[in-house]
Structure formats: structure tokens, C-alpha cells
Amino acid sequence: MAIQSEELLSSYNEDKITYSDLRKSIEQIVEELNGIIPVKCYDCGNCLDFAYYEDLLQNIIENNGDKKDLAEKLQFWKKAKNTDEIIDNITIGRAQIPPKSSINTNTESTVYLDFNLFDRIDRGIPIPEIETSKDLIYCYSPIHLEETHRMKDDEKIQIRIETIRSFTKNNFILNVDDKLDFYCEDPKESYKIALTNTSVNKYLEENRIIKQKDKNIYWEKISGGKFNIKTGNSKEIFSEITELELNKLLLFSGYQKTISEFKIENCTFSEIQNVIHSLYNVLDNLGYKTDKNERTIKSSLYDIDHLVYASCSDFFITDDKKMKLRAKQIYDFLKIKTKIIG
Fold this sequence. Notes:
Helix 5 links the parallel strand 2 and strand 3 (135-139). The protein is 54% helix and 9% strand. By secondary structure, it is of the alpha/beta class. The protein contains 14 helices and 7 strands. A 4-stranded parallel sheet has the order 3-2-6-7. The protein has 2 domains: 2-68; 95-342, no CATH class.
């Protein structure tokens, strides 16, 4: 009943069915139940869903089909359900993997590669050169391994793990005790830990899809009709709006502080992860280099986390033009010193 109610409300909200169709469908459901609505326990997700949708349906009937606020309430509940799934499936492994040994990087330059670069390496295509007088340490992170798992094909997965291992020489960027640092870990071993995160990733990917609808549903309330900036060629997107406006957009994206409170010096992993995810969502809402199809929207989840892990390295290499431009906007604004190459 919860699923049927959600489908009916969504179809009505999207003008796929008329008000008359909606009423007929409700009457049909009631008839099939012989007029008896099962007692809700309010202890399970299905009952909570149905109670919420039942109220929305009742409101539509009482107000003769008025859709006012329906889209917002449906979006709110989708996000709430998705958040519950994320909390239920999240594991401690996504935040921390016990390191084997640490690496001293004071005399060398650290380089973080976008996941697609390892595909180029697999195919024998050279990656961009880096101009530096120091020796280079190429590094990988848990996000590379989570993306590797998405390849599905076991043979390709093993090839990619071996490529990561041989190219990075097991140099690993890791969040330990809420701080990013450099360690040595064979990706064959750390991949086993990364597998514990796959149950939550599908819900995090879904969260990216759901949030793409925020702008169409909430934009008038968020912006008051403002923020119609020409983002296409802007070099400093976040400077095109006032700090007050940016803080409003950040709050809507889940950032609980004002941007002036963020300092890159000595910030924790959680802090930088929160602000980068929030700024990335702000760019979504401002329409800057947005993804169009579902697959790339889901993949952007990993793009954001790559930006988080790359923030502690000296260089970040990517061959994704959109990612490069977004990374530059965020890094420059936060005064992150990582140089972007691509």
C-alpha cells in the first residue's frame, strides 16, 4: 500500500494521471481491501511510509486536487527514506582502515590520480607529465577501490587492482582518526575492506539522483528568484554571489557552519569532506558544469570523494574536463594548494 500510494502521488504530481484517475485508483484500492485499512504499527518503514502518503492523499482529496506543496513533501520523504538507508548500511570501514605503515612525504611530491587515469595506464596511454624538481609519489585511496568494485567483471577488477598496486607502489592516502595521511598498503588487501562499503554506496548514489531534483522543486524558496548568474565562463563562481547567499546555499546542501568558519589549516577529514560535498552541491544548484544522465550523476559521488582525498596531495591529475573545472572552483575558493593537471 505504501508503494502504491507513492506511485499514485508521484504520477499525479508529474501530471501522468488526472485528479479523476487518482480518485478512481484510490477507490479501487479501498474496494480491494473491502473498505478495511490495515492497522499501522508505526514501528516499521512501510507503516511510516503509508501513514505519510495517506495524509498526502487525504489532503489532495479534501482540497479537490490542489497540488500545493505536494512536490516538496514527496521530495522531503524520498530524501528522508534514503538517509535512513544510508545510516542503516554505513560501515566504519568507509571512514577508517587500519594502516600497515606510514610514509614520509616531506622530500617528495605526492600525486593523486582520477580513477579514469588508471584506465589509460591499463591501455598504455601516457598520463600528463608533472613539472617538479622533486621525486613523485603516486597514491591511491579507498575510493579508487570502491570504483574498481563497480566494474563488476572479476577479471577486469583484478587487472585494475594490479595496475593500482604496480603504479602507486602501494602508496595509500587514508583517513585515520579523522585525518588524511599517507601509508603503505597493498590494494589487494585494502580492497577487501573496501568491499564492506558497497552496501551503502548504492544508497549514496541514489542520494545524488534524488538531490538533482532539489533545484526544480525548492529553487524559488532558496534563491527568491536570484542567483541567475552566468556560470559558463566564470572563473570564480562562489564570488559571483554574496557570502550571505552562499551560506544559505551551503545550509541547504547540509553544511552546518558559515563559510567564514572553515579554515583549511589543520581541518579534520570530516570537515573537509563536509565542505567539499556541500560546495559540489552548490555548483549543482547553480547549474555549473552539471551532469545530465543518471550514470554520470551516480559517478559524481566518487568524483566528490576523489576531490576530498586529493586535497592532501601536491598534484591531482584528471582527464575529465568537468571535474577539472569543478575541482578548480572548489580548491581555489577553499585555498587548497593542490595543483590540478589535466
